[in-house]
């Protein structure tokens, strides 16, 4: 699904370094990226999304070339079908929750039902008429995730989406993420510092340090689909979502 | 002090308000793309462009008026082009003082707008891009709606600053009642003729209008700031 090799100069606390990462992701795979700050994790996501220009390499996604230095190809971020969840959520303050999602879904067939479905999936229906300024951090996070999905992306990039949240909210959102990943089978890259979170959600983990890959491999205790589903049911209030979510890829 | 409202008073006031309204409206249209370019540009020309936009803040208005007067006259290539090709004779006309006002009040519109663009988190623009939105859609649907206080400040300051314009209008427009005579010039004219009640009418009006505008601006921006926190 996603195959890339990216190079970019980094300015780290230890002086100038080069971010140099090559990775291939299978369709539906969830890869976690961890590492100390300044390792180049966010830069890597930004390069994949087309928000920054790499110094060299290539990005291929689903048979499409997004970037290729040798062939001088470059797809602007608008034309890369991906969902990006920013660390600060970046919700549009002038729009309500529903409008944020509708703006993201605009121009696609079935935008209305998709927005309603995402609101229900992320338990946002009650909050739909509110503006982001009137929401808690966890609620904003759910809106950000729902909005990223509203474009029907093929790739989901999550930049430390749960870092700023308290532990109970974190656990609920990890469950929501697992549910979303199960339902839409999205190829996902998740930046995370939390070993428990990585173990719970990821198929593989990439450890970055100073721009280089230190280790690629399974998380400490690799989850099987059964345990992921089990944990979703265990963590959600009343196990409600696990039962009501339509199952299977779309 | 006495206060005298003559027919001239109403005519001058109407002209003054027309000039300020046209200036603020046109500057809003010109200022948005200019401020956007300045806020996002990185080229070597950016400081130069910023300096040009900011010049009216530090130049004596008579300098601007003097060069515009020359530029509009048939002694220059630009002036001949305006007069002979476009049929635009700008000196001593309303259109002429409008152009002068646009130049003179430009920084009062562009600088708040530029600050407004720069104060928006970069991630708002990037989020819109990753959702597939074009630059134009991002500007209209995301950026401008989230910088209403800056839009309001720029428009109000350009309006109020044009009300208080003197040197530029006097150089380009002179003092033609009903055509180029605005309130600030009328005050000087009446005072020179020792008609203090008439001068006072203009002066008191300008003072009241400027004060009410600024109070309204601060009231609205404060309300907007507190509403954002809800």
TrEMBL record, chain B:
Tree of life domain: Bacteria
Chain ranges passing through the membrane? 15-36, 48-69, 81-104, 150-172, 201-220
Keyword annotations from UniProtKB, A to Z = Cell membrane, Membrane, Molybdenum, Transmembrane, Transmembrane helix, Transport
Q: Name one Pfam family in it.
A: BPD_transp_1
- Main localization is membrane
Gene Ontology molecular function, alphabetical: molybdate ion transmembrane transporter activity
One Gene Ontology cellular component annotation?
plasma membrane
In this chain the ABC transmembrane type-1 domain maps to 13-219
The record's annotation in InterPro entries points to: MetI-like, MetI-like_sf, ModB_ABC
| Compartments where found | Cell membrane
Membrane topology of the entry: Multi-pass membrane protein
Where along the sequence do coiled-coil regions lie? none
- Its biological function? Part of the binding-protein-dependent transport system for molybdenum; probably responsible for the translocation of the substrate across the membrane.
Similarity comment text for this entry: Belongs to the binding-protein-dependent transport system permease family. CysTW subfamily.
What's the protein here called? Molybdenum transport system permease
């Amino acid at each position: 699904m996603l195959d890339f090799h990216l190079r970019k100069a980094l300015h780290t606390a230890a002086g100038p370094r080069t971010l140099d990462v090559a990775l291939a992701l299978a369709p539906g795979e969830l890869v976690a990226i961890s590492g100390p700050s300044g390792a180049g994790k966010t830069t890597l996501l930004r390069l994949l999304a087309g928000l920054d220009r790499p110094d060299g390499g290539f990005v291929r996604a689903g048979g499409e070339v997004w970037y290729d230095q040798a062939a001088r190809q470059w797809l602007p971020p608008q034309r890369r079908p991906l969902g990006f969840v920013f660390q600060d959520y970046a919700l549009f303050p002038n729009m309500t929750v529903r409008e944020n999602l509708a703006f993201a879904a605009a121009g696609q067939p079935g935008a209305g039902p998709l927005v309603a479905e995402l609101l229900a999936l992320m338990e946002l229906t009650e909050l739909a008429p509110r503006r982001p300024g009137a929401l808690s951090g966890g609620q904003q996070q759910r809106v950000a995730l729902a909005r990223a999905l509203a474009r029907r992306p093929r790739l989901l990039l999550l930049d430390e989406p749960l870092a700023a949240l308290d532990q109970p909210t974190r656990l609920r959102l990890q469950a929501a993420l697992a549910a979303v990943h199960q339902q839409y089978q999205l190829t996902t890259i998740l930046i995370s510092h939390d070993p428990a979170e990585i173990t719970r959600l990821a198929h593989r983990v990439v450890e970055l340090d100073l721009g280089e890959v230190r280790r690629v491999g399974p998380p400490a205790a690799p989850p099987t689909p059964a345990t992921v589903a089990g944990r979703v049911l265990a963590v959600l209030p009343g196990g409600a979502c696990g039962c009501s979510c339509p199952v299977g890829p779309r | 002090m006495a206060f005298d409202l003559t027919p001239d008073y109403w005519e001058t006031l109407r002209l003054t308000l027309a000039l300020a309204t046209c200036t603020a409206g046109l500057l809003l249209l010109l200022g948005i793309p200019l401020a956007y370019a300045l806020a996002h540009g990185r080229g070597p020309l950016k400081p130069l462009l910023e300096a040009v936009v900011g010049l009216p803040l530090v130049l004596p208005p008579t300098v601007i008026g003097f060069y515009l007067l020359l530029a509009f006259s048939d002694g220059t290539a630009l002036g001949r082009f305006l007069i002979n090709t476009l049929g635009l004779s700008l000196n001593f006309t309303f259109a002429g003082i409008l152009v002068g006002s646009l130049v003179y009040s430009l920084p009062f519109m562009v600088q708040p707008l530029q600050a407004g663009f720069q104060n928006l988190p970069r991630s708002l623009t990037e989020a819109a891009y990753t959702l597939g939105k074009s630059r134009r859609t991002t500007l209209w649907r995301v950026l401008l709606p989230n910088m209403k206080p800056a839009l309001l400040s720029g428009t109000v300051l350009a309006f109020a600053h044009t009300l208080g314009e003197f040197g530029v209008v006097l150089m380009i427009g002179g003092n033609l009642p009903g055509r180029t005579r605005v309130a600030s010039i009328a005050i000087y004219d009446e005072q020179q003729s020792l008609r203090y009640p008439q001068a006072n009418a203009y002066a008191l009006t300008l003072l009241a209008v400027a004060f009410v505008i600024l109070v309204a601006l601060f009231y609205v921006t404060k309300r907007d700031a507190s509403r954002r926190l809800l």
